[in-house]
Design goal:
- The chain has 22 helices and 2 strands.
- It is mainly alpha-helical.
- It has a single domain, classed as Amino acid/polyamine transporter I, CATH 1.20.1740.10.
- It has a two-stranded antiparallel sheet.
- The two termini are 40 Å apart.
């Protein structure tokens, strides 16, 4: 579309990527990355052991509402600045290249870790569903294979990925409906009061936490599920009518996932026969489904969930690679000239795609604790979300914040403020016991980034030249208004 290309040109970029994604395709990408059949399922054991049914009934809605505040805040910025750099560009425009640089790296940490978390969950579920020997080598082999399939499909073009993402959205909706329907029709259900049952199992270290603290720890299940919806902004340069489609993609992906996910978790939890035995099972979700539906139908439902995880991983690589590409074309990452290359045949960021795949594989090898991977991805994502939202609050107070066609008017400031407070809260929460290893790991990553920043980026990285001009123009306008 000419308007899309003209808007992109305002930021100093030519239309390099193929713009063939519809509004539904944009929504489908974020909806697939959120993937209630991945996050809510792969961390079902976490919520069940830290809070029990109460966690599903109360924790999920709380996180859903708070995430919607964050999503709306990001959607407004996506409407005003529809580029593949997304968070990084927003932070650069509103706060300068140094803040933009940090935002980009924090988002990349979240992106790589979420790709690792999703595809490793896929590998673990396949391993358990197939009854393979207890060896991590089997899981790593499956993990490497699925990463390769996602890299290859992303390499060959946005049309293929868009089709699969749109298929994924329907797959998630229909698959969730089938799972809910099968359980309601065939499985004996607990009374609805069971959803308020409180339960805490010992942590891996044998510590039994007080119930309400355990419930806060259990929020990781829902919060990790609600990550990656910034993908709608990262593919803005490949979306038709991006200033409207990208923000709607973000917000719709969050609220649809919130509603459908709540009903799914409620029904699965009500199908539990023995809470203690379920919590002690190697894979509580598979245990619930197989004991509730029997061997054959239970296996079918488990494999349906595994298929959803595959789609989620595909979408994650798409978003991850676009973010790395956008950052690299501005010279922000090592090897930027190679990472910013576009495949002449497929018009995709081929090098960035395979670097993301390889990095995700290395991360899973290094970290044997699944909850560490998902905690790192959650913190990386949400801190990178919080920076541009906080900068938007500051710019709005100064009268220097640009608005796109999609916004919530007078409610923006209040929603932004709630979003920032929530992000600060969960960032601290998910580094407390039993996730202290996450804090050490995340702190180590920040230390390495700090060294790199002072050794190179502080003196050499100036950010996108076109965005620098926009920032200077906004500052000049504000100065005239004040005078």
């Amino acid at each position: 579309m000419l308007d899309d290309e003209a808007e992109l040109g305002r930021f100093g970029y030519a239309q390099q990527l193929k713009r063939g994604m519809s509004g539904f395709g944009n929504f489908a990408l974020s909806f697939s990355i959120i993937s209630i059949l991945t996050g809510g399922v792969s961390l079902y054991y976490w919520g069940l052991r830290f809070g029990g049914p109460y966690e599903m009934a109360v924790g999920w809605p709380i996180v859903s509402v708070m995430t919607l505040m964050v999503g709306i805040s990001l959607a407004e910025l996506a409407s005003a600045y529809p580029t593949a750099g997304a968070l990084y560009h927003w932070a650069t425009i509103l706060g300068g290249p140094r803040i933009g640089w940090w935002t980009a790296w924090l988002n990349l940490i979240g992106q790589v870790a979420v790709t690792a978390g999703v595809d490793y969950a896929f590998a673990e579920f396949v391993h358990d569903a197939m009854g393979l020997p207890e060896s991590r080598l089997w899981t790593l082999g499956i993990y490497g294979a699925v990463l390769v399939t996602h890299g290859m499909l992303n390499h060959v073009g946005i049309r293929v990925v868009t089709f699969l993402n749109e298929l994924s959205a329907w797959y998630h909706l229909v698959g969730t409906a089938l799972l809910i329907g099968a359980l309601l029709w065939l499985a004996p259900m607990q009374p609805t009061s069971f959803l308020l049952r409180k339960f805490v199992a010992p942590s891996d270290g044998g510590v039994v936490y007080p119930f309400y603290y355990a419930c806060l720890v259990g929020l990781l299940q829902a919060q990790w599920t609600f990550t990656g919806y910034d993908a709608s902004a990262h593919v803005a340069e490949e979306t038709k009518g991006a200033q409207e489609a990208a923000p709607r993609g973000i917000v719709n992906a969050v609220w649809v996932s919130a509603v459908v996910g709540f009903f799914m978790l409620a029904v699965v939890t009500l199908a539990i026969k023995d809470l203690g035995a379920t919590a002690a099972a190697k894979n509580p979700f598979i245990y619930v489904i197989q004991t509730a539906l029997g061997g054959r139908l239970g296996a079918v439902m488990v494999w349906m969930v595994i298929g959803a995880m595959w789609f989620c991983g595909l979408s994650s690589v798409t978003s991850n690679s676009r973010m790395l590409f956008a950052f690299a074309r501005d010279g922000g990452a090592p090897g930027s000239s190679a990472l910013a290359r576009i495949s002449e045949r497929w018009r995709t960021p081929a090098v960035a795609i395979w670097v993301c795949v390889a990095t995700a594989f290395v991360l899973a090898i290094w970290s044997r604790a699944y909850n560490v991977i998902v905690s790192i991805s959650t913190i990386g994502f949400y801190v990178s979300y919080g920076i541009p939202i906080l900068l938007a609050l500051r710019a709005r107070r100064r009268g220097a914040l640009e608005r796109g066609p999609w916004h919530v008017g007078k409610w923006s400031t209040s929603i932004n403020l709630v979003a920032v407070i929530w992000i600060a809260f969960i960032t601290i929460l998910f580094m407390l016991p039993p996730n202290q290893l996450t804090g050490y790991t995340f702190g180590g990553a920040l230390l390495l980034l700090t060294i790199y920043y002072f050794a190179w980026a502080r003196r050499h990285f100036e950010g996108p030249p076109a965005l620098k001009r926009l920032r200077e123009a906004a500052n000049a306008t504000r100065t005239r208004e004040v005078s």
